[in-house]
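User: Here's a structure from my thesis project, written as structure tokens. My advisor, Dr. K., wants to see whether a designed sequence matches the one we expressed. Can you design one independently, without my sequence as a hint?
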């Protein structure tokens, strides 16, 4: 069991099992579930929802879960719902950032508080389900043969014959000035 390869596989399994736990499944209303008499604004306050999390609506018969627009949420309008379910256990994956609105489609229930608005932050932790395919175009060609054209550095050699004859004398002069300057400073 001390095989390092087995340890590595074990580490990978632990990491892979830990990553999905980052996505949280929220039971709407906790113990109260999706029902009349639960204050869902209180339930959502203090919670931070991220992309990849899910809402789990648990409810008895006689209720529905309707995802609606913001305006329909405000007016408790049922007819234009984006999605609806009445199975008693509705899991809504929060796939996009922004505010998602859910109401109960039964007459009068939304107006009596069965409405919930969930603001989803744009989470950087996407689920590892392989939805993000890498771009296929590999455009980095490492060998650029045209970039090695050397500019000849011998452009300042020719054409200064007089300076060439003067330079030993000037070197002596400069050296003498520098020596004298050091002597003055010391
Ligand atoms: Cu209801």
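Assistant: Designed independently from the structure alone:
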């Amino acid at each position: 069991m001390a095989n390092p390869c087995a340890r590595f596989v074990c580490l990978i399994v632990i990491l892979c099992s830990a990553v999905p736990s980052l996505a949280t499944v929220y039971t709407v209303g906790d113990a109260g579930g999706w029902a009349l008499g639960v204050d869902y604004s209180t339930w959502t306050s203090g919670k931070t929802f991220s992309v990849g999390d899910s809402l789990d609506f648990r409810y008895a018969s006689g209720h529905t879960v309707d995802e609606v627009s913001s305006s329909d949420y405000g007016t408790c309008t049922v007819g234009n719902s984006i999605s609806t379910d009445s199975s008693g256990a509705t899991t809504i994956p929060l796939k996009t950032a922004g505010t998602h609105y859910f109401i109960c489609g039964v007459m009068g229930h939304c107006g009596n508080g069965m409405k919930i608005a969930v603001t989803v932050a744009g989470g950087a932790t996407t689920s590892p389900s392989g939805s993000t395919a890498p771009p296929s175009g590999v455009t980095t060609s490492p060998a650029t043969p045209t970039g090695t054209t050397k500019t000849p550095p011998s452009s300042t050699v020719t054409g200064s014959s007089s300076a060439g004859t003067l330079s030993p004398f000037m070197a002596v002069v400069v050296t003498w000035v520098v020596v004298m300057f050091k002597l003055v400073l010391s």
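When you compare it with your expressed construct, this may help: The helical segments are 4-18, 40-44, 70-75, 161-185.
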